Amino acid sequence: PHLESCDRMHTVCLMRCGAEFEKRFQQKHRDEDCPKRQVICQFCELSMLAETESEHSDACPKFPVPCPNKCSKEVTRETLQEHLDSDCLQQSQPCPFANYGCAHTGKKQELAAHLKENQITHMELLCVAVKRSEEARNEKERLAAELTKKLAGIERRIACLEKLYGPQL
């Protein structure tokens, strides 16, 4: 009778994790130590086995992560990209005139100063871009006129051939 109720008797985990312990530690093991116990993520409230909690934390979308730019903000993993794209003042980004030739890349907080200090340079870049655009448009207009002229010549030849040989061509 004493052996059945003895707290010092060895037993195995009821959740089949393979652990062996004295009966008196069964409750503690089940509630705190067993890797097969159910736990709930404190960030996303997903239920999982304790043994998968670390792996889950590495991918949990609600897990707080520090900004990689060290701006002192902590955001959830799922909102990190949004933070970098729109909120982070330490995020490096190209000048809005990059498509026109400006090579400046810097932090968002520096961008206003760059834009103010380089207004003339940016206007010059835009002028060059407008000039190139006009040249490209003129070239396309020239090609269109040339093709229109060739088409008219081909149409005349076809008309002549139809007169000579009839419309069966």
From TrEMBL:
Residues 130-164 form a coiled coil. This is TRAF-type domain-containing protein. Gene3D superfamilies: Zinc/RING finger domain, C3HC4 (zinc finger) (3.30.40.10). It comes from the Eukaryota. GO terms for biological process: regulation of canonical NF-kappaB signal transduction. Residues 2-44, 56-111 form the TRAF-type domain. Keywords: Coiled coil, Metal-binding, Zinc, Zinc-finger. It comes from Macrostomum lignano. PROSITE patterns: ZF_TRAF. A zinc finger (TRAF-type) spans 2-44, 56-111. Pfam families: zf-TRAF (PF02176). GO terms for molecular function: zinc ion binding. The keyword Zinc-finger applies. Signal peptide: none annotated. InterPro entries: Znf_RING/FYVE/PHD, Znf_TRAF.
